């Protein structure tokens, strides 16, 4: 069964489907609260049913290629993930801009970054109605890795650009680019130190830039096929309810931070 409805209906519809013995493919975000997600996961496990959350970007050629570049060591250890996901509208009436747009990047980060965030800070404002229409989210990871997401319904232009910085190389992913969606830059910074503090020098490495081939695929079709395969062959989807719950937990914490004017919230 597919649940492709407003966020506030996900819990009740998914619960009803599970209670009736149905595997469920549910739109992002998984649920409105962590408690709802935990209950659905427990119910699915008890009935031996699958939950898969629609994190479509994980099935795109671009995200798959970025994952490969990170896994094979091309980037080296990650320093940061910095995303801008902005456009004019579409304004939601049930959820703020964090719950509407941030699930995309949070699910991508959850897939690409091996470590889990330890804390989150969010700031933003509501200008048009009572729901925040612009927000800035910062996630803190172990080992000085940091993530940042800019989501905005009030931008005059549509931007879908992500910068990923690593110890060895840096990536630029422009999802609106038709051909060269990903560009890899052989650039970096290294500190060399002498015996005295004044002898410390910063050296900059500037090498080639290249655009790796990105597979042209229809992500939703691939995702749907994957869901069917998981059901028929009793496999656990990598974007299962537990993965969806991690995103909801971060969304809930970011929303709490937003309401408390940027207070840091532990995860």
What does this entry show, briefly?
The protein has 267 residues and is an alpha+beta fold.
Structure description:
The protein is globular, with a radius of gyration of 20 Å. The chain has 6 helices and 12 strands. It has 2 domains: 2-56 and 219-255 and 261-266, 3-Layer(aba) Sandwich (Rossmann fold), CATH 3.40.50.720; 61-214, Dihydrodipicolinate Reductase, domain 2. By secondary structure, it is an alpha+beta fold. The longest helix has 19 residues, at 241-259. The strands form 2 sheets. The chain has a 9-stranded mixed β-sheet. The chain starts with a strand and ends with a strand.
Outline the secondary-structure elements.
Layout: E1 2-3, H1 10-19, E2 24-27, H2 34-46, E3 51-54, H3 61-71, E4 78-88, H4 97-112, E5 119-125, E6 134-140, E7 146-152, E8 154-166, E9 170-174, E10 182-192, E11 201-210, H5 219-232, H6 241-259, E12 265-266
Parallel strand pairs: 1-2, 2-3, 4-7
Antiparallel strand pairs: 4-8, 5-6, 5-12, 6-7, 8-9, 9-10, 10-11
CATH topology of the largest domain: Dihydrodipicolinate Reductase, domain 2
Domains counted in the coordinates: how many?
2
CATH class of the largest domain: Alpha Beta
Distance between the termini: 31 Å
Low-confidence stretches: none
CATH architecture of the largest domain: 2-Layer Sandwich
Spell the H/E element sequence.
Answer: EHEHEHEHEEEEEEEHHE
Query: Total helix count?
Result: 6
By DSSP, the count of extended strands is 12
Helix content: 25-40%
Overall body shape: globular
| Biggest sheet overview | 9 strands, mixed
Beta-strand residue percentage: 25-35%
Query: What name goes with the CATH superfamily of the largest domain?
Result: Dihydrodipicolinate Reductase, domain 2
Strands side by side in the biggest sheet: 11-10-9-8-4-7-6-5-12
The average pLDDT is: 94
Radius of gyration: 20 Å
| Helix-strand makeup class | alpha+beta
């Amino acid at each position: 069964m597919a649940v492709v409805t407003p966020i506030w209906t996900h819990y009740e519809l998914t619960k009803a489907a599970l209670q009736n013995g149905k595997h469920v493919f549910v739109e992002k975000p998984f649920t409105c609260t962590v408690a709802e997600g935990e209950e659905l996961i427990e119910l699915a496990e008890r009935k031996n049913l699958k939950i898969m959350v629609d994190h479509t970007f994980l099935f795109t050629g671009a995200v798959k290629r970025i994952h490969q570049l990170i896994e094979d060591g091309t980037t080296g250890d990650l320093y940061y993930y910095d995303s801008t996901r902005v456009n004019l509208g579409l304004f939601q009436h049930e959820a703020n801009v964090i719950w509407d747009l941030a699930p995309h990047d949070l699910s991508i980060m959850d897939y690409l970054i091996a470590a889990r965030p330890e804390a989150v800070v969010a700031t933003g404002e509501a200008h048009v109605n009572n729901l925040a229409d612009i927000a800035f989210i910062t996630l803190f990871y172990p080992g000085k890795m940091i993530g940042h997401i800019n989501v905005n319904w009030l931008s005059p232009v549509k931007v879908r650009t992500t910068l990923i910085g690593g110890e060895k190389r840096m990536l630029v992913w422009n999802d609106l680019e038709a051909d060269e969606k990903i560009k890899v830059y052989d650039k970096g910074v290294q500190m060399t130190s002498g015996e005295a503090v004044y002898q410390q020098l910063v050296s900059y490495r500037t090498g080639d830039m290249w655009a790796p081939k990105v597979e042209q695929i229809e992500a939703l079709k691939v995702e749907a096929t994957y869901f069917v395969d998981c059901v028929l062959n009793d496999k656990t989807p990598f974007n299962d309810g537990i993965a969806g719950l991690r995103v909801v937990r971060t969304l809930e914490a970011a929303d709490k931070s937003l309401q408390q004017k940027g207070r840091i919230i532990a995860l």
